[in-house]
Write a structure and sequence with these properties.
A hairpin with a 5-residue loop joins strand 5 and strand 6. This protein is of the alpha/beta class and 306 residues long. The chain has two domains: 100 residues, Four Helix Bundle (Hemerythrin (Met), subunit A); 192 residues, Translation initiation factor eif-2b, domain 2 (Rossmann fold). Helix 1 packs antiparallel against helix 2, helix 2 runs antiparallel to helix 3 and helix 2 runs parallel beside helix 4. The protein has a seven-stranded mixed sheet, sandwiched between helices. The protein binds 1,5-di-O-phosphono-alpha-D-ribofuranose. 1,5-di-O-phosphono-alpha-D-ribofuranose binds next to helix 2, helix 6 and strand 6.
């Protein structure tokens, strides 16, 4: 698929989910490089830069897209000709896609260790990483029940409920405002991540911070399922994460409200590290406080480049 079509599909949320948009970005760059017909390396690098910008501008919050795109273009500026550059883009993209899919599987295995037979779980939105934990626990014959929150305005909770049900998991859909009431029945919360900051806060679907507050109040464990390419290197340098605002039409149909009523539609929110028991990554489970060390020491210099 072309870079412009991929960027448009990410923007319209035809392709959505922090991991999926990162893989789609990597694949679009790989396809672009593969079908490139020019021969000048400088023009190719400039065109790649334009393609990178188009992808990064499609959605601003999930750092996974930024990391996936940057990983795919790593080392390309040092290549001698278009053939070498295109081959590097393709092999980087392939590496990123394979390792990111594998990370979701590993997170499922690590996270499932925290799920006990008989547990009732709760999740918000539609996170492949969080769903991987629930599916893995279920496949290990642990008897679990899951509450999926509807997740307005896009109602991705419907996707989650369908997916869990298809797996044979006992699933209950609740509206977002029921979270505090049902939390009394919940043992553990597993959510996904769009971005994890250097001090261990979570940026995820709007409403996640309410889920975390309700879990904290009810002394329910709150786990974040996040591949390490959702760690944001820019936050090491004090950058704030941009919270995407989407069109008002996603909340209210045209003509439904007087024109004087304003609509505000932020689609992510920030959950402070204090409300997070652990972050489950493909490298293992860690406390939010360990994110800084993992970012700077374990992931190395490349993870720190803004
Ligand atoms: P995985 C989604 O964003 C949700 O916020 C979800 O928690 C997060 O991406 C992570 O999803 P959106 O694209 O990468 O629906 O775990 O706005 O699939």
């Amino acid at each position: 698929m072309s870079v412009d079509d991929t960027a448009a599909d990410i923007k319209s949320m035809k392709i959505r989910g922090a991991g999926k948009i990162a893989r789609a970005g990597a694949k679009a760059l790989s396809d672009f490089a593969d079908s490139y017909e020019g021969t000048g390396i400088q023009t190719f690098l400039a065109d790649l830069e334009k393609a990178k910008r188009a992808l990064l501008e499609s959605r601003p919050t999930a750092v996974s897209l930024w990391n996936g795109v940057c990983f795919t273009l790593r080392g390309v500026a040092g290549t001698k000709d278009v053939g070498e550059a295109a081959a590097l883009v393709a092999s980087n993209a392939e590496k990123f896609i394979v390792s990111s899919e594998n990370a979701v599987k590993v997170i499922g295995e690590i996270g499932a260790k925290r799920v006990q037979d008989g547990d009732t779980l709760l999740t918000i939105c539609n996170s492949s990483a969080a769903i991987s934990v629930m599916k893995t626990a279920h496949r290990q014959n642990k008897n679990i029940k899951v509450y999926a929150t509807e997740t307005r305005p896009w109602r991705q909770g419907i996707l989650t409920a369908r997916e869990l049900d298809a797996e044979g998991i006992d699933t209950t859909l609740v509206v977002d405002s029921a979270v505090r009431s049902v939390m009394k029945k919940v043992d553990k919360v597993f959510v996904g991540a769009d971005t994890v900051t250097s001090h261990g806060s979570l940026i995820n679907k709007v409403g996640t911070s309410h889920v975390a507050l309700a879990a904290h109040e009810a002394r329910v464990q709150f786990y974040v399922c996040a591949e390490t390419y959702k760690f944001s290197p820019m936050t090491l340098f004090g950058d704030m994460v941009t919270i995407e605002e989407r069109p008002s039409s996603e909340i209210s149909a045209p003509g439904e409200l007087p024109e004087t009523v304003k609509i505000y539609n932020p689609v992510f929110d920030s959950t402070p590290a204090a409300y997070i028991d652990a972050i489950i990554t493909e490298l293992g489970m860690m406390s939010p406080g360990a994110v800084f060390g993992v970012m700077t020491h374990q992931l190395g210099y490349s993870a720190m480049q803004p």
